[in-house]
Amino acid sequence: MKLTDVLQRLWSYLRVYRGQFILSILATIVQTFAQAIEPVILGLAITELSANVLDIVNGVPGAGINYSYIAWVCVLYFIRGMGFHGGQFIGQYALTNVVQKSMYDLRNDISNKASRIPVSYFDAHQTGDILARMTNDVDAITNALQQSFIQLLNAVLGIAFAITMMLILDWKLALILIVTIPISYFLAQIILKKSQTAFQQQADALGDLFGYTQEQLSGFTEIKVYGKQEESVSVFRDKNARLRDHGFKASFISSLMMPILGFVSNLAYAVTSVVGVLAVLAGRLTVGNLQAFVQYVWQINQPIQMITQLSGVIQSAIAASGRVFEFLDEEEEYQMPVSNTLPDKVAGAVEFDHVRFGYDPQNPLMTDISFSVNPGETVAVVGPTGAGKTTLINLLMRFYDVDSGAIKVDGVDIKTIPRSELRKHFGMVLQDAWLYTDNIMENLRFGDLEANDYEVMEAAQVANVHHFIQTLPGGYDMEINEEASNISLGQKQLMTIARAVLSDPDILILDEATSSVDTRLEQLIQSAMDNVMEGRTSFVIAHRLSTIKNADMILVMQNGNIIEHGNHEQLMAQDGFYADLYNSQFQKQEQPADIHMSY
């Protein structure tokens, strides 16, 4: 995205709170102005005191310290200090409110957008990249706005006010300092560019070293067995030396910033002092104004260093903003005009009527899929990897819409039904059991947030997991950790089945997850699945063909199309593709890892 587009989009969030935003800018202007007039106010006192001392030394009658004038300057300085600190507090407080509220709105928009984006987007993008846009990129914007904006505005205004005050005091002397501004900025940019490259190399070297170390530690036994300790240590030393060299280069180059810019500032300071003293001796400049000029040297060069240091942060924030707004601009799920509704409970009749679909419309995966399922029937879907089993379920759930044909539930075309209304009639138990960080009770209640504790426990009993939960520390109050690694895979699967039972769906979709568990647990999970399927229309993606012998209909898929269908006995009698798959599994029962179909 272009810089102007990014700034315009950011302003669309900030302008909602433009009153406080303008207040923060005005307060920052007051703060910066108060800082800019400090040298002039101090100069007034210094000029008066030097004149008083000179009069005393020269023996001028009645000469003395003008305490009333000095007191007046002190009061003026106090008022200036109140303005500086008050403006600083109000500006930061108001901007913090604006940034946090606007980023709150941005995060809400991202969350809402994620619920409207089609599944195809998540299929085509890495989860880590999406999470980075939602978290790291938004944090980069927040930090740049809250921490860098005020500093940047303060730096720009500080330079502008300092130059203005110097021009008012003595425009000839001011030219000396004005010339140093582009010199300082140019030198700082050179250093920053080279240091950023060096820091990136250091980060890459550090990541390489960490990755190698982790790899070697995880394979420590194999390294010992094959006697590769010397080679491992040698490679580590090389990578460690590379990190050392890049680290030295990055630190050294970045450390050059202050001495080089300090040299320019000191040079300007020296020239200003010499020329200023000559101006004082010539009577063109007072001692106090000379002191003010010296302070303005630092008030100009310090903001230049700050702007240079902030440029990298600002550039990162602009890049992050572009990534976030690209996500917000993604095409959303197409919403067809709603013309039908479903009753609160459906019988569960499902029909695929000449369905055609392809992830790429030019290369359809399914060309003509037709079958009917009566209410309460169990349909098993089998076939090799890439056959279209998951696609069939995705179309039924309207994660994708068909290119032609129709899918009907109780005779109603699902394209004419809002997705949210359609999906409330479905329950899914996926192969990858998902639990979130909370106690077991709340994880199960996810199936029906209105369910009471007794109903949750009843669902757990149906899913054959109630007894196991009671044996855990804390029972239903036990906390599931972040990776849900404090319970076994099989027990997680049973909990997701209990969640489906609690939701009481009219149509159930099961992606069997018994291939990686032992025989006893497989039987327990199968029993739980039989309980939840009872009386419901069910679709089962089968991994072990032995688990679907009692299905009312078995759909055998290959290359996106149904090549065989019927019950187990019918398909075995045909002695076709299904019979070959079934027989091949039971001919190698002693090698379970080889008999599972891949999906």
Fold and architecture overview:
It is a multi-pass membrane protein. The protein is of the alpha/beta class. The chain contains 22 helices and 10 strands. It has a 6-stranded mixed β-sheet, with helices on both faces. A 4-stranded antiparallel β-sheet has the order 2-1-4-5, with no helix packed on it. Strand 1 and strand 2 form a beta hairpin.
Oligomer: single chain
**Low-pLDDT runs:** 589-599
Going by helix content, strand content and strand pairing, the class is alpha/beta
The third-level CATH topology of the domain at 1-169 is ABC transporter transmembrane region fold
Q: How many alpha or pi helices?
A: 22
Question: Which structural traits does this protein have?
Answer:
disordered C terminus, Rossmann fold, ABC transporter transmembrane region fold, six-stranded mixed beta sheet, 22 helices, single chain, four-stranded antiparallel beta sheet, 599 residues, alpha/beta
Give the topology, please.
Layout: H1 3-14, H2 18-36, H3 38-57, H4 67-116, H5 119-124, H6 127-134, H7 136-169, H8 171-218, H9 220-225, H10 229-255, H11 257-281, H12 287-328, E1 350-357, E2 366-373, E3 378-382, H13 389-396, E4 404-409, E5 412-413, H14 419-423, E6 426-429, H15 440-445, H16 453-462, H17 466-471, H18 489-503, E7 507-511, H19 519-533, E8 537-541, E9 553-558, E10 561-566, H20 568-574, H21 577-586, H22 592-595
Parallel strand pairs: 3-8, 3-9, 6-7, 7-8
Antiparallel strand pairs: 1-2, 1-4, 4-5, 9-10
Helix pairs in contact: 1-12, 2-4, 2-7, 3-4, 3-12, 4-7, 7-8, 7-12, 8-10, 8-11, 8-12, 11-12, 16-18, 18-19
